[in-house]
Amino acid sequence: MMLALICLLQILLPSAHAAAGDFTVTAPKYGGGLALDLAWSAQPNASGYLVLRSSAEGAWEIVVETPLPAEATEYTDQVTPDPEVNPPLDAYTYRVASLTSASPTFPKRAPAAENATDEEMAAREADFQRSLEAYTQSILTGGDLTAPVIGAPKGAWLNLTPGYILLFVMIISVGVMMNVFAARARRGEEIFIRRISGIDAIEEGIGRATEMGRPILYVPGIDELQDIQTIASMLILGQVAEKVAEYQSDIVVSCCIPIVREVADEVVKAGYYQAGFPDAYNPANTRFISSEQFAFCAGTNGIILREKPATNIYFGRFFAESLILAETGFVNKSIQIAGTAEATQLPFFIAACDYTLIGEELFAVSAYLSRDPRLISSLKASDWVKVFVVVSLLVGSLLATLGSDLVVQLYTIGH
Amino acid sequence: MRSTIPLIISLVVGLLMVGEFFIPHWRYHLLTENLLEWGVIVSAGAFFLGLINLIQVNLPKILERQEDWQYKVVMMVGLVATLIAGFSGGDQRISDGYAYRWIYDFILVPLNATMFALLAFYIASAAFRAFRARNLDATILLTAAIIVMVARVPAGEMLGQAISGFFSSILGDWTLIFLPENFLSQFMNWLMDVPNTAARRAIFVGAALGAVATGLRIILGIERSHLGAD
Amino acid sequence: MYNFLVRFQNLDRRWIFVGMALSILIPMLFPVSFPFRVDQRVQDLYDTVDELPDGSKVFLSADFDPASRPELEPFFRANLHHLFRKDIQIVSATLWPSAPPLVLPIMKEIAEKHGKVYGEDWVFLGFKDGKELAIKSIGENIPKAFPKDFEGTDITTLPIMSGVRQAKDFPLIVSVSAGFPGTQEYVLQIQGQYSLDIVSSCTAVSGPDYIPFFKAGQLRGLSAGIPGSAHYEQLVFPDGPPEGTRLLGIAGYNVLSLGHLFIVLLIIAGNIAYFLTTPREEA
After folding, report:
1. Is the pTM of this model over 0.95?
2. Do B60 and B7 belong to one domain?
3. Percentage of residues in chain A with pLDDT exceeding 70?
4. How many separate domains does chain B show?
5. Does the structure show a pLDDT above 90 at C249?
6. The CATH number of the domain where C146 resides is what?
7. Domain limits of chain A?
8. C184 and C203 share a domain?
9. Which residues share a beta bridge with A313?
10. In this structure, are residues C169 and A391 in contact, taking their beta carbons and an 8 Å threshold?
11. Are residues C127 and C261 in the same domain?
C-alpha cells in the first residue's frame, strides 16, 4: 500500500532535470505545466542577461522582452501564451547569454507615428522582428552563452503543499461531520442551536405585516447569483415565502441582478406551492429594478415609500446602498431585519435596523428556520471546524512566539 | 427528474470548480476556464431577461394608468434612449460627442453622485439616533466611533495636539509619555490595527466556514429550495 | 429645559441634514487648510510604487464609478502621474461597467501631459464582465480575457503587451477599488495563488476590511478614502501640484474635517441630553 502510494506520488509530482554547471532549468514543484524556472549564478562584469529558448525542431528565440538586469539570477518562462491553441511541448532547450558593455545593443521598436494605420503598425512590427532575429543570431555566434539545458514542463495533478492539504482536510471534515451529526439527529438526538433573535423576528415581522395589511419587502443583496451570500439569501427566501403564503400576506422581492430575479421568482413560487396556496403567487411581485447600484437603491426606496411594507428583510451582500435603504425603511416605520457577511456594511445595519445578523449567522438562517436535521448538522460541523481553527491559531501564536513557524507554514497557501 | 438533473449538474460542476483550486495541471484549468466562460455568458445573457422583466412589470402599469404611472414613463423613455445611444455608438460610444457619453456625463454621473452623497446625511442622522450610551457595549461603540472620526481628519489631529499641549503645560512634560502630540492618531491606529483587525478576521473565518457549509449543502443536494417548485 | 432635551433627542432629521450641509458647504466656500501627517500604510504604498525599476510594467485595475470619484479619483490621478514620471508602462482595465467613460479620459489627459504614447506606454483594455471570474481570467490569461483593447485593437499587436500574459508577469498590481469586485477579490482569487504584489486604494468604508490583508502582507500598501488620497498626493507632489493640476484629495480632506466634527458634536450633545433626561424617566 505504501509502495503504491509512493509510486503514485512519483507519477503525480513533477521532476526536474539535471543542471549544467550553475545554470538549472526546473519545473515548479506544483506548477500547472506551463512554466519553467531558470536559475543561474551572476557573472562578474555582466551588464545584463538574455534567455534563449529552442524547441526540438525550432530555431532559437529570445524570450525576454528586454535584457534582464545585471543582478538577475532567475527567470520564469511561460512556455506558451495560450495552451489551448499551442499546447506546451514535452521539452525545451535553454541558454542564458551574459551581456557586457561590448555586446550589441538590444533592438527596440521604432516610435509609432501619430495616427499610424494598421498596415504601418504591422510593418513596424515586422521590422522589429527582423532586427530581433539578426540580433539573436549575433548573440548565438559571438555571445557568452551557457551550455544548453533541457527543461520539461510537467504539470502536477495534485497540489500537496501542506496548506492545500489542510484546506482539503477541513472541507472533507465539514462534509463527514455533517453526515455524523445528521445520523445522530435521525436517531432522535437533540441538536442544540442558540437562539438568534433576528431570525425569531422574521416570523413576528410576517405576522405584523399580515395584521397591518401591508406587504413584506425582501432584498437579496446586490451581488451576482454565484456569490455565496446571494445563494444563502435565496435559500432563506424560499422559507420566508412559504411562511408569507401561510399567513396569506404578500411578499415583494426587489432584485438588482436579472438572473437573481429569475431564481427568486422560482423560489417564491415554490414557497407558495409548498404552503398550499399556488394561486396566491403573484409574479409581478418579484421585480428586477436595475443592475446599477444606486438606481436599484432609488427604485427600492420607491417601493418602500409607495407600497409601505411593514417588514423589510435585507439578507445578502450589500454595499453603499445599505444605509440608504435602511434609513428609508426607518422613515417608513418598518421593522427591519438585516443579515450580511459584508463587514463594511454591518455598522450601518446595526445603527439603522432593528435586528442584524452578523457574518455566519446569515448562513445559519435557512437551517434555523427549517429545523431540518440535515441542515442543522451542517451548522454543527462548521462549528467544530471553527473550534479546530481557533485551537490551531492559539497553538500557532504560541509556537510563533517561541520561534517556530510550523503552524504558519501549515496555513500558507501559494508560495 | 426535474430536480434530479439539476442536482447532478450541481454536484459535478461544484466538484469540478472546487477541484480547480487543488489541481494545478493546465489541462484541468482549460476545462474550468471554459466553465467560467460559460458562467460569464449566462450572466450576460440574463440581462435580456431583466430587460423583458422591466417591460413586463412597468408597461402594464403605464397602459392601465396605475398609481405613479408617470414615473414609469420616465423610466421607459430612459431605458429606450440609453439602449439606442449604446447600440448606435459602437466601440466609440464612450468618446466625446456621442449620445451615450452625454447620458453618462450629464445624467448617470450626477444622479450617482447625488445618491452617494445622501450617505453623508444619513450617517449623521443614523449616528445621532443610534449612538447612545445605553449600556456598556453601546458606550464602547460610541467611544470608538468618536475617537476614529476625530483622529481621521487633520482638524482632529490638531485637537489632539492642543489637548496634549494643554496637559503638558499644566502638569509638565512627563505627561507627553502618556499623551504625546499624536496620541489620538496612535490610539486610532491601534483601534484599527488590533481590535478591528481581530474582529474582521473573526468575521472572515466564521463567514468562510459558513460559506463552505452552505456550498457543501448545495453541491451535495441537501439544500434544494433554490431549485424552485417541483 | 427637560422638555427641550427630550425634544432634542427626537430632533427632526431635516435639522441634522441642514447642519451637515452647512458643515460641508462652509469650508468649500471658504477653504481652510490643516497640516497632516502621512499614514504609514500610504507611505508603504508610495514606497512600493517608487521602488519599481523605471521602465517596468504595472497592471492597474480602475474599478470605481461616479459615486466614488471624490474618494478615488484624486488617488488615481496622482498614481498615474507617479507611474508615468518613472516611465512605468501601464496596462489598465476595469471590472465595473460604468468606469470606462470615467477612467479613459483621465488616463488620456495625464498620459498626454507626460508625452506617453498609447499602445507603447499605456493601454486601456476596457471593461470585462464576470467579476471574480474576470479576475481569475486576469490571473490566468490576460489576452484571453481581453482579446481586444477598448478601441477594438487586437492586443497581441500592441507593443506594451508583449511579454505579459498573466497577472504574475507584472511586478505590481494597483487596485483602485470602490467595492465589489475589487481589491478583496484580487487578494482572495489570485494574490496568494500567484504570490502577487498588490497595492490598493479603496473607499474609506472598505479600509478597515483591507487592513487585515495589509497586516498579513497580502497588500503592500493601502490608501483608504479621501484621507488616503490626500496623503498620497502629498507624497507624489511634495512641492505642490504641477501647473493645471488641482489636488482634490487634499482639498476634500480639509472639508471632511468639519463634517466629522459636526457628527461628533451631534453624538456628544445627544448623549448629554440622554443622560440628563434618563434619571427623571427612570424615576
Report:
1. no
2. yes
3. 92
4. 3
5. yes
6. 3.40.50.10160
7. 15-151, 191-371
8. yes
9. A218, A337
10. no
11. no
CA-wise closest residue to C97 among C139, C136, C134, C126? C126
Question: Is C163's CB within 8 Å of A293's CB?
Answer: no
Closest residue, chain A, to C181 (C-alpha): A223
CATH 2.60.40.10 fits A15-151, yes or no: yes
* Residue from the list C129, C208, C263 with its beta carbon closest to the beta carbon of B192: C208
Contact C52, C171 (CB under 8 A): yes
- Contacts of C among chains (3+ CB pairs under 8 A): A, B
Question: CA-based Rg of chain A, rounded to a whole angstrom?
Answer: 31
Q: Are residues C176 and C193 in the same domain?
A: yes
Smallest CA–CA distance, residue C163 to chain A, in Å, is 6
In which domain, by residue range, is C10 found? 2-30+255-282
C-alpha cell at A194: 442558540
Question: What angle do the packed helices C69-85 and C40-50 form, to 10 degrees?
Answer: 30
Cross-chain Cβ contact C166/A78 below 8 Å: yes
Does residue C35 form part of some domain? no
Measure CB to CB from residue A297 to each of B39, B115, B126 and give the nearest one. B115
- What is the distance of C-alpha B219 from the center of its chain? 26
Q: Which domain holds residue B123?
A: 67-130
CATH code of the domain occupying A191-371: 3.40.50
CA distance C48 to chain B (A): 20
Using the beta-carbon criterion (under 8 Å), do B229 and A348 form an inter-chain contact? no
Cβ–Cβ below 8 Å for B126 and A351: yes
Q: Please report residues of C whose CB lies closer than 8 A to that of B47.
A: none
Q: Which residues of C touch A112 (CB under 8 A)?
A: 117, 119-120, 159
* Residue C25 covered by a domain: yes
- Separation between Cα atoms, residue A255 and residue A302, nearest integer Å: 13
pLDDT tens per residue, range C56-100: 999 999 999 888 899 999 999 999 999 999 999 999 999 998 899
User: Digits of tens for pLDDT over chain B (230 positions)?
Assistant: 667 888 898 899 999 988 988 999 999 988 988 888 888 788 778 888 888 888 988 899 899 998 889 989 999 999 999 999 988 878 778 777 889 989 988 998 899 889 988 999 999 999 998 888 888 988 998 899 999 999 888 888 888 889 999 999 998 888 888 888 888 888 888 998 899 888 888 888 888 888 888 888 888 888 777 666 54
Structurally, how many domains does chain C consist of?
Answer: 2
Hey, are the CB atoms on C208 and A414 less than 8 Å from each other?
Answer: no
Residue B230 lies in a domain: no
Instruction: Look at phi and psi of residue C130 and say left if phi exceeds 0, alpha if psi is from -120 to 50, else beta.
Output: left
Other beta carbons within 10 Å of B132 = 19
Residue A107 touches partner B, C-beta closer than 8 Å = no
